[in-house]
Amino acid sequence: MKVITSERWLQRQGSARKHRGLLNLLCALQGQHKGTMALCATTATGGSPLLGSRVSRAQRAPLLHTTVRPISLGAAAPFTLLPPVCASSFPSPSSSEDLSRAREQGTTTTANAQTQQQAEAPLQPSPAVMERRQQRQREQQFYKLAAVAASLGVSGLAILATYLRFYWHLRDAGEMPWGELAGTVALVAGGVFGMEMWARYAHKSLWHDLPSGWALHKSHHEPRTGPFEANDIFAIINGVPAMALCAYGFLTPNLTGGLCFGAGLGITLFGIMYMFVHDGLVHRRFPVGPIAELPALKRIAVAHQIHHGGKFDGAPWGLFLGVQELDEIPGGRAELERLVQQSEQARPAERQQ
């Protein structure tokens, strides 16, 4: 190991208690000094130490890139020189700018990481949002109980009335009145279809265009503040003729009574279907279970949402045939399919909530 030092420089200093930074600076500037100076380095080739010798430019060049180690100067210098740093280790103006830039980038990276962590962290809903969710759940449960009770009550009453009516016929006449039974079944289907046509007409002409009808129906197009809304009065209004037809048909044991009884059952069946699809599936006033996954019902629900959006001047006005109404409107089917696809993409996020 070759050690290059300067005795004259050590004597002039008189003390070797100089800061390590001074030695490092002298080593870094060794290529610029004309005279001899103190150099502490280990050459790549090894060998005996050279003391007090002048070093040429060709000899100094390898020293800038050598591996340095601490050396001891013996008794004359009871301290250990720390390894000097090569000139390339000292920051130049450009390297200082790089250091500042690196610090700025590090700060920016840290800020970006913190921002990303905050974005990935789940947002905690505010107390007002939590209260609104709990209130909505209570409203859904209350309306669900009311809907299920009404459906079971009406359905049970209709089944009992149908059984008793034909039981009395068999008891008095002794044979099944097949013609009357066929008329009753036909009017059940006719009542369902007729109510869809009636709902389409009444929805537009009576509930939207008529001021008195809109006074009640507008509550359905506004945010609901409770389990019920003023628009629910129309369900009671439509239920009155259904009960009247069923009562008359139940008490009249002939073909006319059978037709009236069937029409009343059809209106009742439509009301139950309308409640589950319109109130439950579309507006989510209560959970409807697996029927929400049926593709046909999904399109019916989206078609009714288009009505609430008002893109096609309020159409479709019907519920179960709303998809067919959109087929008759230019661009209606394309808008329906677009919204159906959009709802399918948003469904996984809704399930996580």
From TrEMBL:
Residue ranges that the Swiss-Prot or TrEMBL entry lists as coiled coil: none
UniProt key word Nucleotide-binding: no
UniProt cross-references to InterPro entries, sorted A to Z: BETA-OHASE-like, Fatty_acid_hydroxylase
Keywords assigned: Carotenoid biosynthesis, Membrane, Oxidoreductase, Transmembrane, Transmembrane helix
Transmembrane segments: 142-166, 178-199, 233-250, 256-277
Listed Low complexity bias regions: 105-121
Limits of the Fatty acid hydroxylase domain: 190-321
GO cellular component, one term: chloroplast
Top-rank taxon: Eukaryota
Segments of this protein annotated with the region Disordered: 92-135
GO terms, biological process: carotene metabolic process; xanthophyll biosynthetic process
Gene Ontology MF terms in the entry: beta-carotene 3-hydroxylase activity; iron ion binding
EC number: 1.14.15.24
Keyword match Isomerase: no
PANTHER family in the cross-refs: BETA-CAROTENE 3-HYDROXYLASE 1, CHLOROPLASTIC (PTHR31899)
Family that this chain belongs to: Belongs to the sterol desaturase family.
Record protein name field: beta-carotene 3-hydroxylase
